[in-house]
Amino acid sequence: MNPAFIITIDVEADDEWSTSTGLTTKNAAYLPRFHELCQRYGLRPTYLVEWSMAQSPVLREFGQAVIADKSAEIGMHLHAWTAPPYLPLTEEDHRHKPFLIDFPAAAMAEKVKVMTGTLEEAFQVAITSHRAGRWMLDENYARILVEHGYLVDCSVTPRISWAGTTGHPAGRGPRDYSRFPAQPYFVDLDDIGRPGASPLLEVPMTIVPRSRAALWSRAADLAGSTSLAGRVVNRFSPAVTWMRPNGRNRRRLLDLARTALAEGWQHVEFMIHSSELMPGGSPYFRTRRSVEGLFDDIDALFAFVSTGFDPVTLTEFRMTFPVRPGISRP
Questions:
Q1: Hey, what domains does the chain have and what are their CATH numbers?
Q2: Nearest-angstrom CA–CA distance, 279 and 285
Q3: pTM of this prediction exceeds 0.70
């Protein structure tokens, strides 16, 4: 059985890394080029759409088109600081970008309800796939997703602790996923880090450890992962490889895909932000030249995975995943 190749795109406003109070959605116009590349290789992306992009006429037209020709899936991505109903937690939510899990339970549920309804109205399909904004999922959030009919989540980042990443300064703090499963599993709603009997399938992001030279390993140990020095070390010699292009890792992405084939993995999950496809839309690809390099890297990867992998959307993967006793298949 071939590994599944799952493409996930966080469809969000331009440069959400900034602290600007204004939101623009110009990057919606750059998605058709990416989609055409997927179609060239028979791949089936899942577009995880957040609130501001759902208001974009350009994005709505694009989403309606890919739904109509059945070439992609639309899912939900929730940035709690921009999604209604609005409940500011600080005087500068645009700077702190609080996690949804920082909000009261009732507000969390209402944001998920409104976001889901908005997407279902815009695209006239059931919304069943999800990724949490800033990767922050907890047990209460997972229960809310199940209550609203979600079947699959892709928020878990195995081998990654988000310690040092803040939302609301007085909030609960970030998650540590470092010991979470790396392979898909139905979550236990009382402990999302272990398999259980809920209908929500967790499809973890593909993140694998990589070897470091002794000097870099020593520097990382001394610096600590969350310090400025630690971030510099991780930039030049990261401890892990994500299935996520960064403009410098084409060879590692291809090696990761080859390993998945050789070892018979269940899945490989690719991710990117829609804003990274537009020059100046992110801190990482500021120029047209850098975006062209990004597309070259993606083209090389997609050409390789077009044979030997099964292209599926998130919900398609959920529908074919082996179901344990006690879990119903929709």
A1: 4-206+243-320 (3.20.20.370)
A2: 6
A3: yes
